[in-house]
Specification:
The complex is a heterotrimer. By secondary structure, chain A is mainly alpha-helical. Chain A is built from 20 helices and two strands. Helix content of chain A is 74%, strand content 3%. By secondary structure, chain C is mainly α. Chain C has 27 helices and two strands. In chain C, helix 16 crosses helix 19. Chain C is elongated, with a radius of gyration of 31 Å. The chains are: A mainly alpha, B mainly alpha, C mainly alpha.
Chain lengths: 492, 106, 591
Amino acid sequence: MLLFLVLCPIIAALLIVFGAPARLTALVAAIANLAVTLFVLARFDQSATGFQFASSLLVSSDWQIHLAFGVDGLSLLMLLLATLVTVAAIWFSDKIDNYERAFYACLLFISAGAIGAFASTDLFFFYAFHELALIPTFLLIGIWGTGNRVRAAWKITIYLTLGSFVLLIGLILLYQSFPPPERSFDIAKLQQAAAVHALAAPDQRHIYLLLLIGFGVLISLFPFHSWAPEAYASAPAPAAMLHAGVLKKFGLYGLLRLAIPMLPEGAHYWMYLLAGLLLGNIIYIGLVTIAQEKLDWMLGYSSVMHMGYIFLGIASANVLGTTGAAALIFAHGLSVALLFAIAGQIRNRTGTLAFEELGGLAKVMPFAGLAFGFAAFAAVGLPGFANFSSEIMIFFGAIRNGWSMERFHMFQIATVLALWGVVISTVYMLRAYRSTFMGTMNDRWAKLADLGSDLKIPIALLVAGLIWFGFAPQTLVQMVMPTFRTSFTANK
Amino acid sequence: MITLGHYLVVSGILFTIGFAGVMVRRNIIIILMALELMLNAANLSLVAFSRFHVDPSGAPNYNAQVFVFFIITVAAAEVAVGLAIVVALFRLRQTTHVEDITTLKF
Amino acid sequence: MILLLPLGSAAVITLFTRRWKNLSALISVTAVIGSFICSCFVFMRTDISAAEFTWIDIRGVFNVPIAFILDDLSRLMLLIVSGVGSLIHIYSLGYMRDDPGKSRYFAALSLFMFAMLGIVLANNFVMMFIFWELVGFTSYVLIGHWFERDSAAEAAKKAFLTTRIGDFGFMIGILMVWMACGAVVFDDVVAHFSKITSNPGYLTIAAILIFCGAVGKSAQFPLHVWLPDAMEGPTPVSALIHAATMVAAGVYLLVRVAFLIQASQTALLTIAWIGTITALLGALIATQQSDIKRILAYSTISQLGYMVMAVGLASNEAAMFHLFTHAFFKALLFLAAGSVIVALHHEQNIWKMGGLSSKLKITFATFAVGALALIGCPPFSGFFSKDAILALAFQRNMPIFVIGLTTAFLTAFYVSRQVLVVFLGKPRSDPARTAHESPPVMIIPLIILAFFAFTAGFEAVAQNFLIVPHEKEAGAIVPALAIVALLAGAGVAFMFYRNREHEPLHMELFRRLFYFDEFYAWLIKHTQEFLARVAAFLDRAIIDGGAVRGTSGAAFGLGSLLRLFQVGNVQAYAFLFGLGIVALIYFVIFR
């Protein structure tokens, strides 16, 4: 079942390369993936622990590497995110003039990489599938991007490869730190082994730091973030949607899946460092975002900023915070995908995304205004959207960390500052919306076409996801929480 | 008495002259000759070792002399190939000055 | 049910009926009237229990239900909100008749009703916060309804942002309460209250932070700057949001968490003083405004100050009473002003009006009723409620009483000024000369509201709805002083403003709103914008330029350096080769 999910985009990509109609095949493959994911979701048993829908193929008997897949609540959420955003990304792509087939093939490979990484229960393939997605990103940005695209493509690829390298060292050390009889590439077995007897404390600290930096580069943790804005600004909209919405979350998934359950001592040791860095993400990058004058740069920086909140949930080291982090991963992925999609559409029509030049677009593009409004207010954390419910969980979880009534602990201060970040995000998001869609309109834009009505479907998909989990977050909580409950009760 | 040391010193001087020639001279053919000089310096030291390291039965150690034969043969073959390369190079570049052959420069 | 009707209406309009404007309007109005009927029903019967729905539940750690609280307070608010809301919906049918964005307007209006009713019915902090933010969002949409105007777009942004800053404090307060008591549901917090009272400093900070939310939403000093700008929205929006419901949400919150606030004397005092300052500030600024809606906006700020003052003086009853009466007369005033504006083809400057008493008879009559209620003239409702608050102040805090009395004087002054300039005297412009009365759709709500503005103050009437405060020991001195202030204010206004063509008084400080906007703009420019630019510079130059480009530059540099070895000169290679041999010999033999 899950093997199908991973193979489908790859096969579709190959078909496209060999001549199948590009956009149609890609779309069919993406929708098929989404359908399968929903099916898995419907059949998922929320009360069972461990991985469901598991499958496994032996690849190397010397090293005991299996092509193994399985889902639990957290991975299922990630898969849902990946498939939803893939459908939206492919649907939103406009007519490509050059190398159309390669474009869609790249998109599908990125999707396959992400889905493979999320569904994989084998450490080796977990890493390998992510690497699969790096080169297509390079191609997408370098060939079909805008602005300073070649430089952005080089920057992101080399930076992320360096990060992956650090990550690889961390993963190898993690593997080595288990005593030989328990060594295995199977993630479930590793988790159980770590739960039974914890790894040595000094080991945990080093490995956690390596994993944090490695994954952190992939997630654009401050100060390893400078690849993100330029890359997202230069990337074509579907690539930005997939990367910011899905690929970035691979790092967070890795932290949640590997670092937290297996290295609790390490996590505790580096808690303050993480808190400081994530505040850098939220406040410092938030301020930088305010200073931006172009929509695409602003969105790029804002996606970096929101990672800070997810880190806050991870750093909170309790069930509430990490569940909130997982929820925000999903919510942010959807909302940022929609934001980039509309921004890309605007750029296609007007050729510019500078705030000074845009204005009053809601008059000629009301549907775009509505959709962007949904996404913008979701990103800001308006209740009714999933972002709010996840941020609530994060804040409540984070502030609980190390609290006592007499004095104020660093985490409380961090939470307060993170809350101020909400105000900062309101400032820039509202300003962007107002500069782009409201106010007096430049006469140049009087003849713009609105978004096509076929785009209603992907927009509706993304918004529906946001609203569903905004109104009924318990469904998400029930799905994801068991994953964290076990890791926290085992270690506390 | 002429000891092993004297022979080795002479060999060393010859080697150095040859090495300096390789490094300093501009004409490729002269460089090849200097290269030959280095090889023969090694030959000399080998023969010297053969002459002065004597078995308890009084016979010199003939391994080194056999080695010398190998070296002479190889040197001859190498000179043949080297001169052929020089001829090809001359036909291409009309020069035998090694400084003019700089295609590998960055 | 009450909640779902407006929500359903909003959803239906947004998704389906945007083309058919009149249908949208009809759906919205029907929905809200349905809510009102249900509210009346709920009010009558005391045994209704409501459904509960789990929003987030992590067992043992965090539990947020979506559940409803149905006590006297919330029932009363339900009635006010849905009742006044219904009237305003009906009024909007007339006011927005020719507006191209009608569907959007009614969708937002329905969503607003949903959110406001949610606040009133919320039984826990988080749920209230959810609907609180939703109210802020819908008012953003409504204020920015005519978004092509830069001023409207800016005003909407300002409103949302300012209330968000208040919400920031609110959220921290909620977090503090949760951490101490372990619950967000109001009843549960009360049950565990002893945990928090053990640390008075903590309690005070939490209480004041929760008050921040009210400061933002109810436009108290210093977060009051959004309310006057919010007049950019259509007048029914101003009536609904800024007079009757949204701003009252802040007061409702304070009353709801009174158990928390009243446990800390410092918090009470802070609240009382902020309310008082706001009341005075609003009144002072109102005396110099020349836009008919802005006068009312500052008057709202002022009256809200009174209510907050009452909360700070530890009398919820007085605050709710004034909220109750204020809802009626302020909505009435706004709607009547809207009627004037429409009759004069969207003219809002009072110095272009005049002599309308003969042309817009019913509007004038209803406006006068509202004005008299606002001033606190007996036997109108405003008199009773304002009197209750003043009596409270007289008893408990003399400086506040003095300021409150001064504010009453000023209130009489600026309201009379408004009536004199707008309705009496001679018409000052063509639209004023040719005005005629507004259509019945707009007039009937005015009349209904006027009726309530008149009667709601009487004890016999009010008693059915809420607890009427009694301050027995004050005796007759407070009402007497209040009436004196009233007459003095009206008299002075009469003196200055009878039959004038232009504004005779010029007080720059008041006219320019005490330069608050300028101050805030300056503040923002020099802190946030400055920090943003610094951060952007740091990011581009140091992190990106220094670290990242530096690394790549170093890689390039190293490469260039190493490149130098590739000279292409065979002899150089030979030389290096020789060097290598020497080094090797050295290491082998001598190490």
